Queue: 2 jobs
Job 1
Amino acid sequence: MEPSVVIRPAISGSAAVPHGAADGSHTIADRLRAIRARMDQAAIQASRDPAEVTLVAVSKFHPQTSVRAAMDAGQHVFGENRVQEAAAKFPPLRADNPDLRLHLIGGLQTNKARDAVRLADMIESLDRPALADALDRAAQAEGRLPDLLVEVNTGDEPQKFGVPREQADALIRACRQRFGEKLRGLMCIPPAHDDPHLHFRLLRAMAHTHGLSVLSMGMSADFEQAIAEGATLVRVGSAIFGPRPAPESALTP
Ligand SMILES: *Cc1c(COP(=O)(O)O)cnc(C)c1O
């Protein structure tokens, strides 16, 4: 399908303000249903099995009530950017839902590695040798190791997280040796103004070279293109939860 003919609901501005229950829970359930339908459609159009693609609902900056609304609507996999925010939000939710899976998707400081390893089911943002060292030490200390993805800065943008393209092969190889099967795949965030297809294809080719099966790519604006290019995880935030409130509101009650 031509990406240009995909009809997308508005996901920003006033059109994205929840119209459902006062707490937005109806809206979240409706939007989740709509996103899942679009994901299935994109997979079918790409002759893929819709079951190969998992939705990671990115709940960063949104309150626990929003996560609960999504959980009630059958969503189990969530993405958070900040370890501190995830640590405040998720342990009580996990107590109520043993199926819950938390992916950490934001740039990770080495001094947060231990908390990250304790909290996460998957860390999608492994992007440098020093972080691999820190995660390895944390895993020894905690006696558990989450699944890992290497984040590749496919656009080589200086301000972005992710390993630069020319260092990616070496980091992937080193992580493979060190973490074995726990290194599951690759993640990328294409530059805002590029055609995302080129970046998705690049990531898929790298994963193929290294025999990795998980590809985390695609967000609210481009998850259908990502599915067309082989995504197995799509990270969708604002199209489910609405525009993000200021970061502080999720951190300070
Ligand atoms: C915030 C975020 C997303 C979700 O972005 P939306 O455009 O709101 O869907 C996905 N991936 C990462 C790494 C993010 O930080």
Job 2
Amino acid sequence: MNNRFFFLSLVVALCHYVAVAEESGNSSSSLTLRAVNLGNWLLIEGWMKPSLFDGIPNKDLLDGTQVQFMSTKLQTYLSAEHGGGSIVVANRTTARGWETFRLWRVNETFFNFRVANKQFMGLESEGEGGNNVVANSDSASSSMETFQIVRNDGDPNRVRIRAPNGLFLQATSETKVSADYEGSSWEDSDPSVFKMIILTESTIRGEYQITNGYGPEKAPQIMRV
Ligand SMILES: *[C@@H]1O[C@H](CO)[C@@H](O)[C@H](O)[C@H]1NC(C)=O
Ligand SMILES: *[C@@H]1O[C@H](CO)[C@@H](O)[C@H](O)[C@H]1NC(C)=O
Ligand SMILES: *[C@@H]1O[C@H](CO)[C@@H](O)[C@H](O)[C@H]1NC(C)=O
């Protein structure tokens, strides 16, 4: 039994390692697939039942999940220009590495958005534009890198993204993405509405995702059963 637990821990560690390695460059599908195969196989093991994930709010947005956002108005994807270290734009018609954001889950609706070069999305500092969305922060330690994903009741993959300043992101043009929208419509023509694509094959379903997903109050009860 001990041996088996050790082996599982090893596999979990490996999955994390592969996932981290995969993050470092432009998205590389071969590495992603390897992690998934290990992960799914691992989950068949009894001590971590797939049903453990069922009660997690927004369980399709676990820590580490990769997502892409297409502006319904422009029909283009949000992109961290140069993979990070620069502005966030919306001028790509297809989504690859720079258009993929890895979610660090703060709680059920709040996330840090990690871009291809491992920096985080945030807002430009006051004076330099303030509301412009950039991806140049080395850490997500301040509240300025925390965004809320607000899902549409009828279509959970239709979202709006609330920035740390309390306002919503909007893609007013392909090269201007700012956090200054105050409306509330869900029309396609609304510059703050995005179609969220979840790269489900990239999702890691491990012990950390369970505890982080349930949060500090509920996780201890779940993990005890
Ligand atoms: C997107 O916009 C940025 C900033 O203006 C520009 O540097 C880049 O070349 C554009 N990319 C495409 C594919 O239009
Ligand atoms: C990385 O991906 C972006 C778009 O996602 C692309 O424009 C760029 O050429 C890629 N860079 C490399 C080195 O593959
Ligand atoms: C989630 O985190 C955000 C940002 O830290 C916080 O403002 C919010 O109150 C939290 N929500 C819950 C339900 O804990």
